[in-house]
Amino acid sequence: xxxxxxxxxxxxxxxxxxxxxxxxxxxxxxxxxxxxxxxxxxxxxxxxxxxxxxxxxxxxxxxxxxxxxxxxxxxxxxxxxxxxxxxxxxxxxxxxxxxxxxxxxxxxxxxxxxxxxxxxxxxxxxxxxxxxxxxxxxxxxxxxxxxxxxxxxxxxxxxxxxxxxxxxxxxxxxxxxxxxxxxxxxxxxxxxxxxxxxxxxxxxxxxxxxxxxxxxxxxxxxxxxxxxxxxxxxxxxxxxxxxxxxxxxxxxxxxxxxxxxxxxxxxx
Length: 268
What we know:
Layout: E1 7-12, H1 14-17, H2 28-35, E2 41-46, H3 52-62, E3 73-79, H4 98-109, H5 112-115, E4 120-124, H6 131-140, H7 150-165, E5 171-173, H8 175-185, H9 208-211, H10 220-230, H11 259-267
Parallel strand pairs: 1-2, 1-3, 3-4, 4-5
Helix pairs in contact: 3-4, 4-7
InterPro entries: Iah1-like, SGNH_hydro, SGNH_hydro_sf
Pfam family, one: Lipase_GDSL_2
Domain SGNH hydrolase-type esterase: 10-225
């Protein structure tokens, strides 16, 4: 087993689980790993179907106590909420009330196993929801009604903004806004002052159809947008440097490795 590099961990639900997939030639996780290659390992801990209560129950298994020689958690991206925001149905039990959701997020970011690493923490808003599409698919698989609602999901994204604002040092990544801004811009004639895209009241899916194919999960275009808003937060210590292709490597670049001096001595 290779010795561990410092880590970037993607901790979340199916949105992060799917970040490993390569669709239409793009993978969020691969793009991020390419950006930090030789500096960090990008670890995917996306858990499909999990809400924040589930996440807390397994957190000690994912983030064990810091030990000498163990990996150092440098960056932590947290993305939960799509399942917490689901409504309670006889066929679905993922819902977490919004006040508890906020409390759970605070417990995650202040958990002793995480705080021991002093990582840079990013809270990510759940993406928008296309309730029109969700309703079609939920009814087709046997739910009595939609498991998720546009307006409720938006409230959970707002809750993430509030938690980030109340948590010193935590950075907000507003995925909801980034995707909705693109969807509105690419839906000709849509009135943003009316019901939101994907809301049955307005009846317009618009460009959310491209960004959220099943109404919930991200398309490759959405993952690209997601990566574009994450990318500037990583690598400030080497970005823009003349030698940025070598700065901050865990193991030295071959041109600066100590054995070069030894080889020169032997040749001399």
